[in-house]
Write a structure and sequence with these properties.
The complex is a heterodimer of chains A (about 170) and B (about 425). Chain A is built from 8 helices and 7 strands, in the order E-H-H-H-E-H-E-H-E-H-E-E-E-H-H. Chain A has a 7-stranded mixed β-sheet. Chain A is globular. Chain A starts with a strand and ends in a 12-residue tail after the last helix. By secondary structure, chain B is an alpha/beta fold. Chain B has 14 helices and 18 strands. In chain B, the strands form 4 sheets. A 7-stranded mixed β-sheet of chain B has the order 13-12-18-17-14-15-16, sandwiched between helices. In chain B, strands 4-3-2-5-6 form a 5-stranded parallel β-sheet. Chain B has a 4-stranded parallel β-sheet with strand order 10-9-8-11, covered by helices on one side. In chain B, helix 7 links the parallel strand 9 and strand 10. In chain B, helix 6 runs parallel beside helix 7, helix 10 crosses helix 12 and helix 10 packs parallel to helix 13. Chain B starts with a helix and ends with a helix. The chains are: A alpha/beta (about 170), B alpha/beta (about 425). Chains A and B meet through helix 1, helix 5 and helix 8 of A and helix 5 of B.
């Protein structure tokens, strides 16, 4: 598996909640429609400005809240990775299970501003701001987690193991 | 080892686990809720063990949309095809954490997983319970296992005796207001003061662990807990509780003197470092008061609300919504006359559902409105418009405030 990613970053703050990313009304919509409303109040219109391969950088306690699968919306928009000072663990698991690399790196929130370039390796556990040249080291993901990411998420893995009939179940 | 470390070690087949380790554990019960079946549901080809699965209809019932109705269709087909005996369809339904509690499904020393972030509620019964995303719950359903990272544990030591006007919600808000978030930590409660905290309040506290971003929140099994479980079919010889070792390592031990507490209120946005004694809250007019959810829609909560409003009238311009946490609570509250008292005072009593708490299909707020809720979450935009404000307090405080029309100390109203 290629564990290196590079792209343009978007920076959000501390304690961004799942309600702020996946509002209740969006839960009535399909995943592609719901993805249009991510950060609906925090950064209105954000979904229109995101490019495939972009990276989201966040502060502390990223993803506090519910189990609604925000990671499916990020994947839908083409977000390649999320990096935070600290994740809510339910949110972190949701990212991994949807095949979205999620790296915890102290100091990352202040090391980036919107539009900077980033390169990271989630197996080795580092991120570099390619605009400023600053490089930070965080926690490398354990092998068990890398296996899930390599499979493209937990549902493709289940499909391969014969538990699920078809690959389109990737956003259950 | 702490309570959680003991449970994780046991279920991972290890002598011991330590902080930071990643372990693979057997899951004793997987609880699936209606939302899981409503979006892109694919019936699995095989599942691990139908006896270790419960299906509970709670978030959007009775179905407010065709999509949710289809979720019900899928859930019923799944329960039938895989012979799921623990199926709680509309009519015997309720918010899953309440249904889990009243049917003795959360057992001491076991692991319980569910697609709802407030699954940590079952920690009141010494269960390692946590919310997981729908994809992961699907995976546990199929394989019977998942992985956990062993987080450090914060121990809360209760001393003193809980005053009658102080509830589990107040205790939790005091903790959240004083110490803030517990991200990537487990919460463990205990101490000599625990005996004065009834089971419903323990569940409120355990439930709200999710709000301070904790992984698990667990209580020990004492006489009160044993009796509670035995009345619901889980006899003491059928489970093995996990008590912490005397030399268990904690990230911190924090003492809560229950006797010194008063009712608390959280200001809008978050509970962390944002909860204050009600006496410190400004006179804040409210438009909607809500009593319900997995945290505070229990029979005891409805009883307090009914006692507060009995013979009085909800203030003009205020809506008081009351949602019993389950159909069983609804029936009990009706039998006891609580629902009559509430309705006579001008409250709207709704069907049991997650409903207003997650802002999906009823009780939503308009821009500029202020809500005082006893439910689980006061995030911006949680209950409708992001331009509404959500304060949070105990059922007693919410009921008292519904009578006056502004955030009110219930100790005046209750006496």
């Amino acid at each position: 598996m290629d564990t290196q990613i590079s792209g343009r970053v978007w920076v959000v703050g501390d304690s961004v909640t799942t309600d702020a990313m996946y509002p209740a009304f969006a839960m009535k919509l399909s995943i592609p429609e719901a993805a249009r409303h991510i950060f609906y109040e925090l950064r209105p219109g954000w979904a229109d400005r995101v490019d495939k391969g972009d990276i989201v950088i966040a502060g502390r306690n990223f993803g506090l809240g519910s189990s609604r699968p925000v990671a499916a919306l990020f994947r839908e928009l083409g977000i390649a990775a999320v990096v935070a000072e600290e994740f809510n663990s339910l949110f972190l698991r949701n990212c991994i299970n949807h095949g979205l690399p999620a790296l915890t790196v102290a100091g990352v929130h202040t090391a980036f501003t919107d539009g900077d370039g980033a390169a990271l390796d989630f197996a080795e556990g580092w991120i570099e701001n390619t605009t400023t040249g600053v490089r930070l080291t965080g926690g490398a993901l354990p092998p068990l987690v890398l296996d899930i990411l390599a499979a493209g998420g937990i549902l493709p893995k289940l499909a391969r193991e014969g538990y699920v009939p078809l690959p389109r179940a990737s956003h259950v | 080892m702490t309570m959680i470390e003991k449970i994780l070690a046991r279920k991972a087949g290890r002598e011991q686990v330590t902080t930071g380790q990643t372990v693979v554990c057997d899951v004793d019960l997987t609880v699936m809720i209606d939302l899981q079946f409503a979006t892109m549901w694919v019936p699995p080809l095989r599942i691990n063990d139908p006896e270790k699965v419960a299906v509970i209809m709670d978030h959007a019932v009775p179905a407010p949309s065709v999509g949710d109705a289809l979720g019900g269709t899928h859930a019923r087909a799944f329960a039938r095809d895989f012979a799921i005996t623990k199926f709680y369809d509309v009519g015997r339904h309720g918010i899953c954490h309440q249904v889990i509690a009243e049917n003795g499904l959360a057992r001491p020393g076991e692991i319980l997983a569910c697609t709802d972030s407030h699954t940590c509620a079952a920690g009141a019964y010494n269960t390692a319970a946590r919310g997981l995303g729908p994809a992961e719950v699907y995976s546990i359903l199929c394989t019977g296992r998942t992985w956990f990272q062993v987080a450090p544990t914060l121990r809360y030591e209760f001393t003193g005796t809980k005053p009658a006007a102080v509830s589990g919600k107040d205790i939790f808000l005091h903790i959240a207001g004083t110490w803030g978030d517990a991200t990537n930590h487990n919460l463990e409660f205990g101490g000599a003061g625990l005996a004065s905290i009834p089971m419903n309040d323990r569940r409120t506290i355990a439930t709200q662990g999710a709000e301070i971003s904790a992984d698990y929140s667990t209580f020990p099994i004492d006489g009160l807990a044993r009796d509670f479980l035995a009345e619901r079919g889980a006899t003491p010889d059928s489970y093995r509780p996990a008590d912490p070792d005397p030399d268990a390592a904690y990230a911190a031990v924090r003492t809560v003197d229950l006797s010194a507490l008063e009712p608390y209120v959280a200001r809008p946005g978050t509970v962390s470092n944002n909860s204050f004694p009600v006496s410190a809250i400004e006179r804040r007019p409210v438009n909607q008061c809500f009593i319900g959810s997995c945290a505070n829609g229990q029979l005891e909560d409805i009883a307090i609300a009914a006692a507060t409003v009995r013979g009085r009238t909800v203030a003009p311009g205020v809506r008081l919504l009351v949602t019993p946490a389950s159909q069983a609570v609804y029936r009990e509250a009706m039998r006891a006359g609580y629902l009559q008292d509430l309705a006579d005072a001008g409250a709207v009593v709704t069907n049991s559902t997650c409903g207003a708490c997650f802002g999906y299909h009823m009780g939503l707020l308009a821009p500029g409105e202020v809500c005082l809720t006893s439910s689980t979450r006061n995030f911006t935009g949680r209950m409708g418009s992001p331009e509404a404000e959500i304060y949070m307090a105990s059922p007693a405080t919410v009921a008292a405030s519904a009578l006056t029309g502004y955030v009110t100390d219930p100790r005046g109203e209750l006496n």
